[in-house]
Amino acid sequence: MAESTPETHVIDFRAAEQLLAARDPRGAVKLLDSVVAAHPENTAARLLRARAFFASAQLRAAELEFQLVLEREPDNAFAHFALARTYERAARPDQAVRHFRLAAALDPKPEYLEAARFESDGA
């Protein structure tokens, strides 16, 4: 196996983006594992890996990765929205609504506002 360098990590990150876009999330996770191992502080790599976990239905891994991103970037509206989608898919609606609402409060995009269901009672 070739030696890992910062350059190979950038190449792996870009290739992982392409694999995720091509609907190969497991391939993306494999590439990102080495990037995250070498650069655990790299939030972009962690966010991409979280998206790949979600796309491959590895919901617990996605949840943990999105939570880690949010510990570092609590104002990341996309990470809140994606974590909410993860909770929604895992049949945890109360947690999902909380993060949908945080996403909408941070960035009032129409899809975030719709998912937040501010007008509904009960949450």
Automatic annotation (TrEMBL):
TPR repeats: 77-110
One Pfam family in the UniProt entry: TPR_2
Highest taxon of the lineage: Bacteria
SUPFAM superfamilies registered for this protein in UniProt: TPR-like
SMART domains given in the database record: TPR
Statement: the UniProt record of this protein carries the keyword Repeat: yes
Alphabetical UniProt keywords: Repeat, TPR repeat
Protein name: Tetratricopeptide repeat protein
Record organism: Streptomyces crystallinus
